[in-house]
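Supplementary Methods, section 5.1.

A reviewer requested that the exact input to the structure prediction be made available. We therefore reproduce it here, unchanged from the version used in the analyses.
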Amino acid sequence: MDLDGARAVVTGGASGIGAAVVSQLRRAGASVGVLDLAAPAPTQDLAVLCDVADEAQVVAGVRAVHDALGGVDLAVLSAGVGGFSSLLDMSADEWDRVLSVNLRGAFLCLREAARLMVEGGRGGAIVVVGSVSGFLVERLMGHYSVSKAAVHHLARVAARELGPFGIRVNAVAPGVTDTPLAQQAKLLPGYWERAGERAALGAVGSPDAVAEAVLALLRAEWVTGQVVAADGGVSLWSPIDPAEALGR
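The structure derived from this sequence is encoded token-by-token as follows.
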């Protein structure tokens, strides 16, 4: 799919992976509307303040992007939140806070973007930003991990339902990435260093590196329903790898 001249909506586009996606889409020639709670840098064609967990705001926000750009061909759903808590200590409010943005928000934005794509009759492409936390088991991140596992499956179900309309839906699963969302993890002793050491490519990811994977999926015309790990290979690490016992 040629991104030059495409019209895109990006949620969470004010910072991190979303902002990197906005910049790369603009360089590729796409027009971009951003939905975010924070005001983004002036690198997009339209910015709409929007809480993705609020249905009315999402409906109005996606429609505003559609009307301003003359349509919606692409959607990148990057808005997300995180947190640390054991399941035993986690409040229902904390659970709801993360699931409402990461899962409910992804569903609402996907639904509205897809409705407008179907209405436009030109097909389209949607990429949901998940996480390797959606298929790894990490303590103290149960709500985040569950939300991302659900988002991956949401993308697969949406791909099956929307395929007849020419709409492709995929997910990108970043590993540890140097974004504002990950700054809290830097306070954990040794966490950042271990994440880099355990990645096959030997480093923590950057927003631009993940955004490249997002754009690759937007362009890939015969790929749908896939979850692609853009994690530098950190999800390949195994604590029971026999080579580690041999000091390799």
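The CA atoms of residues 83 and 141 lie 7 Å apart. These observations are discussed further in the main text.
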